[in-house]
Amino acid sequence: MMSLLMAFLVLFLIKPGESQTNISDNNINTPIRSFCGRNPPIIISNFIQKRNSTLGEIRRQLSSNGVFYATAQSLAEGDSVSGAALCRNYLTTAQCVACFDVGVSQLISCVTGNGAYVFLDNCFVR
Questions:
Q1: Distance of CA 120 to the CA centre of its chain
Q2: Whole-angstrom distance, CA of residue 90 vs CA of residue 110
Q3: Residue 18 placed within a domain
Q4: Residue 81 included in any domain
Q5: Residue-wise pLDDT tens digits, 26-81
Q6: 100 domain-assigned
Q7: Which CATH number do you get for residue 83?
Q8: What does 43-85 look like in DSSP terms, one character per residue?
Q9: Which residues contact residue 78 at a Cβ distance below 8 angstroms, ignoring those fewer than 6 apart?
Q10: Quick one: how many helices (H) and strands (E) in the chain?
Q11: Distance from C-alpha of 6 to C-alpha of 20, rounded to nearest angstrom
């Protein structure tokens, strides 16, 4: 009887946990941390073209159902660009791409230096 009373007391005192829902209103893609490199590109116009091409390829890969990690690179002469993105695996494809887009909007301001990344609530882009 005492053990039953003790079990009831423990269950009564425990607060139930709550997980994050997968509703799009809760996935606001808040930037947590970002970094812009300090090494200037050799030719800024070539760097921007390669960066945009690389990020476009990553976005194309993430647009496929069930893809939560993507990489791409542009290694032509001058500034080589490589990139990667990782989404949390509970996101829908649309939520993953939306998070990536927010990350890209943060990264495109990094034209003064090569090498950048941004951590968001639901994804990572570099």
A1: 5
A2: 29
A3: no
A4: yes
A5: 556 888 888 988 888 888 888 888 999 999 999 999 999 999 999 999 887 777 88
A6: yes
A7: 3.30.430.20
A8: SHHHHHHHHHHHHHHHHHHHTSTT--EEEEEE-SSSS-EEEEE
A9: 41, 42, 43, 46, 47, 50
A10: 3, 5
A11: 31
